[in-house]
Design brief:
Chain lengths: 277, 327, 439
């Protein structure tokens, strides 16, 4: 064969392959065509795409599908805590609905067992994982309900909003980065995180203790434990004290009561974010 | 203060460093034979490769990976030794250093350091040099026992080179005149890369590794057995004298490859089943390359190709979990 | 001479450190105060029957089983109940315990305290189960599963093998070894009682090769009390794990996710068999057990007959400690639990107390995995710990479940033998914990 023939032969073969492939692809594309939900696609583009599941859906695409297929009533119950109000307004505009007002929230750690308040009694030398350590023993501090100070929440926060404070040994939530996605609540083996409203002017008041032991027992391990002394309940009747443990409902105004509650608590278990000591 | 941790509370005395020490010890006999036969040049190449690899690993860990240098675990020394053993003794020093660079930086550190590399670093280094500098990599020095200034690069072909060249044209009678006899090949008095020539030294190393339980017998045995079975089969079927199975077994890098390169932890499968599949694959590929390709030797390529299959083998050749026996 | 049997997959050979196998069982005596937990078993805590100020005798029922998966608890001393409240266990978690101040040593009258061996079994199969239930007997090998549940064969199942576990493959521990050497006849009778209750086709006492004295005495005992045989097993860890022992003795495998009874086998610890003998033949409930006190920080390792509820510190004092304690382990060094509380009470499942020096209390430094495949080779369950490790580090729990991580028996072979010292077992435990939480 001469050079020309080789070239022509190649062109012919390739053309045939191209035509056959095109026909096959045409039929495949027809058979497996997926009707794209344009609205859902557009909503998904607005969403933060963190796929954290904080909204209760299985990821952002699922949330977008739910939004797209909702009516005005159903839409009110849908909320993306990560994107917040701005994102919801945008989605509402797309759908022609009204975005409900949602109070911005933040995760708080309900434990004040810092290195100073609850000093180490034993040395944990194993794998740094709260979930594992909590199954092996009570924790370095001896408190069966307190923070293990090993940082599973820090490692698992999808937004890097939690950082270990080397001084206190406790994890700290950065309210600017926290999106209330709830990962820390799922991760923490002691269930120490709670999502609370950011509060007016960003001031919150809450009980930083989950220990239900009797006051004396709890105090043995942690100076800052709630002992259920009822002092806070006397200041604000909405506060409930059960099983030696006080809980401040989110309805209690931090601006109104915060300062008073924090200074009245004899152990310092009540944290008021308005004023640093 | 009491210490608390999870179980277990005791550990085997073996650790990574001790394993690497054992591998280094097992490689010493082959190195000594190489030095005895190829002289001072062999020693220089070995030292260059080892120092080069260790230095590069140190620098790479410190400045590229930004982790605590892993030179303490001695794995870079093993890579250096294996690389040197795969080179002819009269390699220029700068070429050896390029080999070190490719082995450590490209084949190991770029993948994430020890335990994460997909291919055997020493083999990548060797193959890179082999493709880049084919002349130097196939210039073999005549073996001369205890002549330490053996720098005479009077090129002698390797046994496998002779066989490849004369494929299908040799009779049984002139075969023996062309290639060294079995005893020479067994002891190592033959041309080739400095670490691969002596079958006995390599066997000695393998027995040490098996005795210390550093490697399991599966890969060396199935690799060599598969290869031997294929060559013998074809030898008797075709009557081709260039396929003399014993010569093929004792010459070239088969033993070095099967004992020390294919058994590399990181680049071999985890389960016993997987190891056997891997070894058989290596054996078949080595035979195919030696018999059908333009290269006289195929161990490096065979192992590297099978390295690429390791993740796949690991996925499908799982050990049988207890309680899942089929009735 | 019968063949020495063993399991087929994996296994390791750790150093034995059996410091106390030739030291006779010593009665630890009665401490001043005992603290008896009401939950010494798997399942629901027992319901407390006594209150502050009540007088109890040795063998008095102090807490009643709450449901089927629970166990009765008896007083181990005579005296006065001074506290019934939450007290720290060995791991530091609070649990309900009954604290008794000891006064004298007065036993319930119906307990037969003579040393005679009663070999005739008069109780019917049904009675046996009831006596076992009333005596508060649980698996004494370490798991603490209530024995009455285990000796009730589910409908449609047959017991082909009753295996008495005398393996004690954990280093240091010698409690079962000593018990077999000193009370072999009682164990064999206990085995026959169990065999009667279960209607077992074959009853085998399995002992590992490194206990020649125990094998000798047991062989003599089975010569006197016919119907039980002795099977020597290879010295290999974890030969004493239930599933591995079943495979060694019967050649069968417990199906993944199944129970031993699915393979027609029931395994009981020799200590449990001894307790059953005492309960059925001597009318003595479970309130004492044999405990090994050992470790590299102990002056004189020993085996003690200990009343349940005795504080660990009381035993450590008896054995003597060389230096400051670095770590206290309840159980053996492979599977035992490191404790935070030196006063933690001895329970029905404490087979040993180990005290380690400060140097040996630390975990070694971790280096990267070199894919040496040792963990795959040693896993007696045929799992791939290295794979589980990397999956868990990436949070892929579903994938880990697919490769049978739930079948992990937590024997610690992988973590023991890893040359890079990766805490592989920790990752397996984490995976099991997370997967079970999701369900």
């Amino acid at each position: 064969m001469g050079m020309t023939e080789i070239i022509l032969f190649n062109i012919a073969i390739l053309s045939v392959i191209a035509v056959v492939a095109a026909i096959v692809l045409f039929f495949i594309a027809k058979k497996f065509k997926v009707e794209p939900n344009i609205m859902a696609e557009e909503i998904a583009e607005i969403l933060p795409q963190a796929n954290c599941g904080a909204c209760g859906s299985a990821g952002c695409q699922d949330f977008a599908n739910r939004c797209a297929s909702s009516n005005a009533d159903e839409f009110r119950s849908l909320y993306c805590p990560v994107g917040g109000r701005n994102v919801m307004i945008k989605i509402a505009q797309k759908l022609g609905y009204i975005a409900e007002d949602h109070e911005p929230t933040v995760a708080v750690l309900q434990c004040n067992g810092s290195c100073e308040n609850a000093p180490d009694k034993v040395d944990y030398v194993g794998l740094k994982s709260c979930r594992l350590a909590s199954r092996v023993f009570v924790g370095k501090t001896g408190c069966p309900n307190g923070c293990l100070r090993l940082g599973d929440c820090v490692r698992n926060c999808p937004f890097g909003a939690i950082e270990m404070n080397p001084k206190t040994g406790l994890p700290e939530v950065n309210p600017d980065k926290c999106t209330s996605c709830g990962t820390c609540i799922r991760i923490c083996p002691r269930g120490l995180y709670e999502i609370r409203p950011v509060g007016a002017n960003g001031v919150r008041v809450y009980v930083a203790c989950k220990n239900k032991q009797k006051g004396a027992t709890a105090r043995k391990n942690c100076k800052s434990a709630c002992i259920g002394c009822m002092k806070c309940a006397k200041i604000c009747p909405d506060i409930k004290v059960e099983n030696n443990l006080s809980y401040i409902p989110t309805t209690v105004s931090a601006e109104q009561y915060g300062k008073e509650l924090a200074s009245a608590c004899p152990t310092g278990a009540i944290v008021y974010t308005g004023e640093k000591k | 203060m009491l210490k608390v941790s999870t179980a277990p509370h005791m550990y085997t005395p073996t650790n990574t460093v001790k394993i690497m020490q054992d591998v280094i010890i097992s490689l010493i006999p082959a190195g000594l034979v190489g030095i005895a036969i190829f002289g001072l040049n062999a020693l220089i190449t070995i030292v260059t490769a080892v120092v080069g690899c260790v230095a590069m690993e140190y620098v790479a860990c410190k400045y590229i990976l930004k982790v605590k240098p892993s030179t303490k675990d001695l794995s870079a020394i093993v890579t250096g030794l294996l690389l040197a053993y795969n080179l002819p003794c009269n390699m220029p020093i700068w070429m050896t250093l390029i080999g070190c660079f490719v082995a450590i930086i490209i084949a190991k550190v770029a993948f994430g350091g020890i335990g994460k590399n997909l291919f055997n670093p020493a083999l990548i280094g060797r193959v890179f040099l082999f493709i880049s500098f084919p002349i130097q990599m196939t210039t073999w020095v005549e073996p001369k026992l205890f002549d330490f200034m053996n720098t005479d690069a009077s090129t002698s072909a390797t046994t496998l080179g002779i066989l490849k060249h004369a494929e299908g044209e040799i009779s049984a009678s002139n075969l023996t005149s062309l290639i060294p006899d079995y005893t020479d090949m067994f002891l190592g008095y033959t041309g080739g890369s400095m670490g691969e020539v002596s079958a006995i030294a390599l066997l000695l190393g393998l027995f040490y590794l098996l005795y210390r339980r550093v490697v399991s017998w599966h890969i060396p045995f199935f690799y060599v057995a598969t290869f031997f079975a294929l060559t013998s089969g074809f030898y008797y079927y075709t009557g081709d004298n260039s396929l003399d199975p014993v010569t093929h077994l004792l010459s070239g890098g088969l033993f070095l490859g099967a004992f020390f390169m294919a058994t590399d932890y990181t680049t071999s499968p985890m389960s016993k089943k997987g190891k056997i599949i891997f070894a058989i694959g290596c054996g078949v590929l080595t035979f195919v390359i030696r018999r059908y390709s333009a290269y006289p030797e195929g161990v490096s390529f065979a192992i590297l190709i099978m390295n690429a299959f390791v993740p796949l083998i690991d996925k499908f050749a799982r050990p049988r979990a207890y309680g899942t026996r089929r009735k | 001479m019968k063949k020495i049997k063993t399991f087929t997959i994996g296994g390791i050979h750790p150093d034995k450190f059996k410091l106390s196998s030739d030291i006779a069982i010593e009665d630890a005596g009665v401490p001043e105060i005992v603290t008896i937990p009401v939950k010494q078993h798997i399942g629901a805590p027992a319901k407390i029957l006594v209150g502050k100020g009540d007088k109890v005798k040795v063998g008095t029922l102090v807490a009643d089983a709450d449901g089927i998966i629970s166990a009765d608890v008896h007083s181990s001393v005579s005296g006065e109940v001074i506290k019934v409240e939450e007290t720290e266990t060995g791991s530091g978690y609070p649990e309900k315990m009954i604290t008794i101040k000891v006064e004298g040593d007065e036993w319930e009258e119906d307990i037969d305290r003579t040393p005679d061996i009663v070999s005739e079994i008069t109780a019917s199969a049904e009675d046996i189960v009831n006596i076992i239930r009333k005596s508060g007997i649980v698996g004494m090998g370490g798991a603490g599963f209530p024995t009455p549940v285990k000796v009730t064969v589910p409908q449609g199942k047959n017991v082909d093998y009753l295996i008495l576990n005398g393996i004690e493959c954990e280093p240091y521990l010698t409690a079962d070894d000593r018990l077999m050497q000193e009370c072999s006849e009682q164990i064999v009778i206990g085995a026959k009682i169990l065999s009667k209750a279960l209607n077992a086709k074959k009853t085998v006492i399995a002992v590992d090769e490194n206990k020649p004295n125990a094998i000798k005495t047991l062989k003599k005992a089975v010569g006197i009390h016919k119907g039980v045989s002795v099977q020597v097993c290879a010295t290999k860890y974890p030969q004493g794990a239930e599933k591995q022992l079943i495979t060694a003795v019967s050649g069968r495998e417990v199906p993944s996710g199944g129970l031993p009874i699915d393979a027609g086998c029931v395994v009981q610890n020799v200590g449990t068999a001894f307790a059953i003998y005492e309960a059925v033949q001597k009318n003595k409930p479970l309130f004492e057990r044999i405990v090994t006190v050992s470790g590299d920080d102990v002056e004189k390792a020993g085996n003690f007959r200990v009343r349940i509820g005795t504080p660990s510190s009381y035993l450590i004092e008896k054995a003597g400690q060389k230096s400051e304690i670095g770590k206290i382990i309840f159980g053996g060094p492979m599977m035992g639990i490191a404790g935070v509380n030196l006063n933690a009470p001895i329970t029905k499942i404490s087979s040993g107390i180990l005290i380690l020096k400060d140097e040996s209390a630390y975990k070694p430094e971790v280096s990267p995995c070199i894919r040496c495949a040792t963990c795959v080779d040693v896993c007696p369950q045929g799992l791939e710990p290295y794979m589980i490790h990397s999956l868990i580090r990436n949070g892929e729990y579903d994938e880990a479940e697919k490769i049978h991580v739930l079948d992990c028996i937590e024997c610690g072979c992988c973590a023991y033998s890893c040359p890079a010292r990766i805490p592989l077992l920790d990752y397996c435990k984490l995976a099991k914990y997370e997967i079970r939480k999701k369900k």
